[in-house]
Amino acid sequence: MLTQNSLLPKVIIGTAQFGLKYGVTNRSGVLSTNEAHRIMRLASESGIVKLDTAQAYGASEGVIGSFTEARFEVLTKIGAFPERELDWVDWLSSRIKSSIADLHGHRVTTFLFHDVGIFFNQGRDFAIRTLDMISSKFPDLVFGASIYDPDEWERLRDIQQLRVFQVPHSVFDRRFSQSGALEEMSRMGKSVHVRSVLLQGLLLIDPAALPETLAPWASTIETWQEYCIEQAVSPVAAAVKFALANPLVDGAVVGFDSVEHLHELITGLRSIPENALYYPDFGNLPADLIDPRRWIRV
User: Fold this and answer.
1) How far apart are CA 294 and CA 182, in angstroms?
2) What CATH number is associated with residue 229?
3) How far, in Å, CA of 211 to CA of 202, rounded?
4) What whole-number distance in Å separates Cα of residue 17 and Cα of residue 15?
5) pLDDT by residue (tens digit) across 35-61?
């Protein structure tokens, strides 16, 4: 059985807030470099060894690279491809080298495709040839994809060059688990990282403070928070434990808008009961709630 302390190394610090005003509950804007460094310092001191970032996250890669007190393993993401003809291997090589330069001092191990459209728009054979060539140029790197729904996994599952998958998974969103995709990924030797564990902070917000577009789901969030009160557990710790207690999950990406919130998670995971929590079953919630991409259109 996993212990509280054994969960912490599986936490991956999400760094979108290091370069963007990210998240539906974000009230503080982009983090200062000093606050980002405080988060990385506490993470390192607590046994957290991985960071997740992206070329699309503003100055995030540079902020990470400016932190010299500890050395993290970093996973980053390649942004959308230009809508013009180009030598894609050369373009990918330049983007990879740019990230490695910005993240200097840290161990960059993994590049994920933030937009898997390349594999569909240019043809499957073209995508596989491109991956073969880029893998041969950077043999020490691992490549993968960040995807949003199980249908995307079905289209990518047999592309052997993609070895890491990042997928949404939370107490509200269990599609990848219920569809059998998580089990299949693990069986095929893929590394599984889950994100949207807190739904951009939606699981932590006071229902009365919900944005107008999400107000219809206040009662669902109230049910979750009442459960946490009954269990005497921190909502952030309960939500992250839900993701990490799944043996098919290798890591969970969790972002923070302050060092205090990271401290709350660390304290919560260390104090949460050893016995398994029995989470409420929220059933199949509508995509308008569980997919942040849809929130602005609700």
Assistant:
1) 23
2) 3.20.20.100
3) 10
4) 5
5) 999 999 999 999 999 999 999 999 999
